[in-house]
Amino acid sequence: MGAMDTRWKPSVTVAAIIEREGRYLLVEEHTPEGLRLNNPAGHLDPGESPVQGCVREVLEETAHAFTPTALVGVYLSRFQRPATGEDITYLRLAFTGELGAAVPGRALDHGIVRTLWLTPDEVAASRDRHRSPLVLRCIQDHAAGRRLPLEAIYTDPSVAALAKRS
Known about the structure:
With 166 residues, this protein is α+β, with helices and mostly antiparallel strands. Helix content is 21%, strand content 39%.
């Protein structure tokens, strides 16, 4: 293995923190650890900006359009998978924004059981079912009013060239 192969690489994910009338949108999904709750979230794909990735993930996991309006924060967490011992560090960019209409006829992504709207107290009470410790933290930061401008995240045009290759 060359030096490049041994470099530690966190897994980059994007998440949507979506609130409506005091409730937050979560997805219930199948994971190797069983049925878990998460913010609509997923991995950043080659060739897309973090904002584009977040829009795509919300559509895939909730069947709704989503328009990010602000960055809630950038988060680092580590997960050790009990079954395999796999050790993954996640770098999460969490966005908030406007949830649009449901897309007619659009099915939820494979593994997503349903979407649900929970109050912050209900989210806190279901902590043992969260996919990540970031689920609650991002909601708490959103509820506290944390908003950073989208302009704080810049994607160079060279990134889009990745999408054309894959």
